[in-house]
Design goal:
Elements lengths: L23 E3 L3 H5 L12 H6 L13 H14 L3 H14 L1 H10 L1 H8 L3 H7 L1 H4 L6 E4 L6 H5 L10 E5 L15 H15 L6 E7 L5 H4 L16 H18 L4 E4 L4 H11 L5 E3 H21 L8 E4 L3 H18 L3 H5 L2 E5 L2 E2 L10 H4 L16 H8 L3 E4 L9 H10 L4 E4 L11 H7 L5 E4 L6 E3 L2 E3 L2 E2 L6 H11 L6 H12 L19 H19 L11 H10 L9 E3 L23
Length: 603
């Protein structure tokens, strides 16, 4: 993953409030400096810095480089004998030295991504109360409603927070209800924002909304370690009032902050997103991120197959949060591209779930998100609609997407039937983890005589068919949601409507390797994501300007200049020169009071 050299402030954009080049003001010294993760350099403090900040005697005398520290930390990482041990080591490193933590991951992204995020982070969340060492992030609970405003205040002045990730812990990473342990998914998601889009970690806030848990073993009387509220989950009006109080307080305290809702339950995720989307810039990765990255893969596949979007027919197998989120993004893109209504665009999408094809007559069984994709019963009178094969025979889709968690659901018969009717079948088995995939790429190539255009929800090795090697795209949300957030933050977007998401998706699709080589991956690799995030952010910013949603007005209009402007405001994992400043005139960052790892924060 590339990083840009900002050792010297850019003359043109170094003055920006979010600039991350040039010297870094610092008002603390001695042990306090060494205990502040975002200012600490450990053994890499220079001789001059050791003298100026009173570090002599607190460090071994040999001055190290960041590269040397990374080498040492990597050896320590490898010495851990299991993934959860490696995850715990990385958490400890982050609490000591943020630059070293992020640099270590960036240098070993393929190896470490699954350790700091899914699936290992899921295991860490499940063991949160057992592994707990020190708190990080903001803990809000439904029994202290009147404390929400006060509990949000200490995290910075109104201008200090750019991004808030919040979870209520009901549907964590496929492992379900984890109660207060959800703070770790908020923390992990913010780490991905920093790694993939350069969001400054000291300007972010992870939040958990503790509304109880429906997992009895977490609060049983003989399990005293659980750290959250020991009660069943709050529902209904009390739950909605809590979420409302949080959103209003967060938006009031940090009016320019972008809010990311993460891992809310099926009955709440879409409902909450729909409620607040018309009011502030907010996002839900489960609903929108999966849809956006899948749409980008579909756009690239349409380019290869030479099918126009207005002619595309799509079957989505599995219509939960992810499936309907994908349907939404496809529908919105079709509507934008064809200038037709969303209702017209809906007619190009067929959604399938447990009852079979979604039909109007199932209205009492359908969620709000599913109901808009239900087909008229008359259309299917006398036709089979309760198994996937019958639907494929009738619809003859160009695109088949799986979010069902039903392994092997895309059988040879289903795939061959699809391939009979379209020249280049586009098939995306997206269910996670790998054991739940609807089909494996190797079989898809065999059953379509090598014609399939494929993307998956987990990493797969390239497939060799008839002597040709085909790269398999991974629909990894991390290639798109960080760039969307970066674009909203830098433009200070008031809202995040469909038009901005479509712009982001087009920007990702434009980076598809398959546009240059049809045998290549439909989507770029996550290791290239920082530069991809620049392009996505640019697309979001331009769309925000077009819609009049940007509150930042001093945005360069030249394409090359805006890219430099974006990069200048992306945080890098490198040590910056520290500049001694007086505490009386210093801001919270210089005084070591910023970021979730601060030991010096004052309320």
């Amino acid at each position: 993953m590339t990083s840009h050299n900002k050792a010297v402030s850019h003359s043109q954009y170094g003055h920006l409030p979010l600039s991350t080049s040039g010297p870094m003001p610092c008002a603390i010294s001695g042990s306090a400096l060494l205990r502040t993760p975002y200012l600490n350099k450990g053994t890499a403090f220079t001789s001059a810095e050791r003298e100026q900040f009173k570090l002599h005697g607190l460090l071994p005398p040999n001055v190290q480089t960041l590269e040397g520290q990374v080498s040492r930390a990597y050896k320590q990482f490898k010495a851990r004998n299991n993934d959860i041990g490696k995850n715990t080591f990385m958490t400890s490193l982050k609490e000591q030295n943020e630059v070293l933590y992020y640099k270590l991951i960036l240098d070993n992204l393929k190896e470490m991504f699954s350790i700091i995020y899914t699936p290992t982070e899921g295991e860490a969340i499940a063991q949160y109360s057992e592994l707990f060492r020190r708190p990080e992030g903001c803990f809000l609970n439904v029994e202290d409603l009147d404390r929400i405003e006060a509990d949000l205040d200490p995290w910075g002045a109104p201008e200090d927070i750019d991004l808030i990730v919040v979870s209520d812990g009901e549907q964590i990473l496929g492992i379900g209800d984890q109660g207060v342990g959800a703070i770790l998914i908020s923390i992990a998601k913010l780490a991905i924002y920093t790694l993939c889009a350069g969001i400054n970690p000291t300007r972010t806030l992870p939040v958990v909304l503790d509304v109880g848990t429906n997992v009895p073993q977490l609060f049983r009387t003989n399990y005293p370690l659980y750290l959250g509220l020991k009660r069943n989950r709050v529902r209904g009006e009390e739950y909605d009032a809590f979420v409302e109080r949080f959103v209003r307080a967060a938006h009031k305290r940090y009016p320019k902050a972008y809010i990311h809702f993460e891992d809310f339950g099926l009955q709440n995720a879409r409902r909450i997103l729909d409620k607040y989307t018309p009011e502030l810039a907010c996002f839900n990765d489960d609903v929108q991120g999966t849809g956006c990255v899948t749409l980008a893969g579909v756009m690239a596949a349409l380019h290869v197959s030479k099918v126009k979007m207005q002619d595309m027919r799509v079957v989505i197998f599995g219509s939960g949060t992810a499936g309907t989120g994908i349907a939404d993004q496809l529908r919105d893109a079709i509507a934008v591209e064809t200038e037709n209504s969303k209702e017209d665009a809906n007619r190009q999408i067929w959604c399938f779930d447990k009852p079979g094809l979604l039909l109007k007559s199932q209205k009492n069984e359908l969620t709000t998100a599913q109901a808009q994709y239900a087909r008229e019963d008359d259309e299917w009178s006398g036709k089979g609609h309760q198994n996937l094969l019958d639907v494929i025979k009738e619809v003859k889709p160009h695109v088949l997407i799986g979010t069902s968690t039903k392994p092997g659901a895309f059988t040879e018969e289903v795939v061959r039937e699809m391939a009979r009717h379209v020249e280049r079948p586009t098939i995306f088995p997206l269910s996670n983890p790998t054991k739940l995939h609807e089909a494996v790429p190797e079989d898809l190539f065999k059953w379509t005589d090598g014609k399939v255009l494929c993307a998956t929800g987990s990493p797969f090795d390239a497939v060799e068919y008839n002597g040709t090697k085909y790269e398999i795209a991974e629909c990894n949300n991390s290639t798109i949601f960080p760039g969307i957030g970066l674009g909203c933050i830098l433009s200070r977007a008031r809202l995040l409507p469909t038009s901005l998401l479509v712009a982001a998706t087009k920007a990702l699709a434009a980076q598809s390797p398959a546009l240059k080589d049809p045998k290549a991956s439909l989507l770029p690799d996550v290791t290239e994501v920082r530069e991809i995030s620049v392009q996505i952010a640019k697309g979001v910013i331009r769309a925000a300007e077009k819609e009049g949603l940007n509150r930042e007005t001093d945005i360069p209009q030249d394409d090359k200049e805006i890219e430099e402007w974006i990069r200048e405001q992306m945080w890098d994992a490198r040590y910056r020169e520290l500049q001694k400043v007086d505490a009386d005139s210093a801001d919270a960052h210089a005084k070591g009071e910023a970021g979730t790892g601060s030991f010096l924060r004052v309320g």
